[in-house]
Design brief:
single chain; 100 residues; mainly alpha; Rossmann fold; three-stranded parallel sheet
Length: 100
């Protein structure tokens, strides 16, 4: 099975958040983990926010970046997966809890 990983999930696993155990299990069962090239700046942005607002030290930020990006087997162009990503977002939206 091929899995498309987004930045939020990658950071969640790297930081060992609440959903990390489940996500790690799914990742380990996948034959290939792919992500759009946009994952790089999205992960950097998320980690920078942890640095600014949660006062993560730079060492922890660097480690989080490496772990998150290291989950990906292959980075692909957005053109290769945009329809699949849109379909997944519609499915997830109908199952995701509302937060805010």
């Amino acid at each position: 099975m091929r899995l498309v990983l987004d930045a939020n999930a990658a950071v969640e696993v790297a930081l060992e958040g609440k959903a990390a155990r489940h996500l790690s299990s799914v990742l380990s069962e996948s034959e290939e983990v792919i992500a759009p090239e946009l994952l790089f700046p999205e992960v950097v942005n998320a980690v920078w926010k942890y640095h600014q607002f949660a006062e993560f030290d730079l060492g922890k930020c660097e480690k989080t970046l490496e772990l998150a990006v290291g989950l990906i087997d292959r980075f692909v162009s957005h053109r290769e997966i945009y329809r699949e990503a849109f379909a997944l977002s519609r499915i997830q939206k109908s199952h995701a809890p509302v937060s805010g």
